[in-house]
Amino acid sequence: MIDIVSFNKAEAEEFNKACSLNFSKIYHANNFRIATGGNEGLNRKIVENKSTDILLDPEPKGKDALHYRHSGLNQVICKLANKNKVAIAFSFSRILKADEKERIRLFGKIMQNIRFCRKYKVKMILASFALDKYEMRNAQDLRSFALVIGMTPKEAKEALDFKPGKDFGIRLLKEEDNPP
Asked: I need a labelling partner for 28 at 20 to 30 A (CA). Which of 8, 15, 150, 164 fits?
């Protein structure tokens, strides 16, 4: 199991060992070319860029239309993501921080995006993207959450077990490429 965090990687690895979160590897978000999504226009621009590895949280904030859910992905964006080998990532930290009404909307949008990713064979990633050690969750908890939101057991395992450099198009940046 692999996790991606946004705070100090050394502290995250220490916390992983102390609390037995069962992650075999923890990466810092700066090790990847990650772009945070928003509306469908922004998501499409991000996915069209071949240097992007991961589109994080494509779900836009706010209310949906009466007969249409604005999930941030559509068939065109998913086809481009598959073609350009851009993975779609879902952040557990965002779900933790959302208030009750926003969390309900977010679950629906994520479930719809999972169906889009499955249909168009786009790589999915589920990670904590924690900003501090208290937002990290056990690998088994994240896998159970993935099953609840609509991933198959195989998809849930792959979403937590990606290997940079070998999976889809995710490249691990060299240490000297990382910003300070």
From this structure: 150
| Strands ordered across the beta sheet of 34-36 | 34-36, 54-56, 87-91, 124-127
Query: Is a pLDDT exceeding 80 seen at residue 169?
Result: no
pLDDT above 70 coverage of the chain, percent: 93
| Number of domains making up the chain | 1
Which H or E run includes 91? strand 87-91
Within 10 Å of residue 99's Cβ, how many Cβ atoms? Answer: 7
Q: What is the CATH number of the domain that holds 7?
A: 3.20.20.140
What average pLDDT is seen over the chain? 89
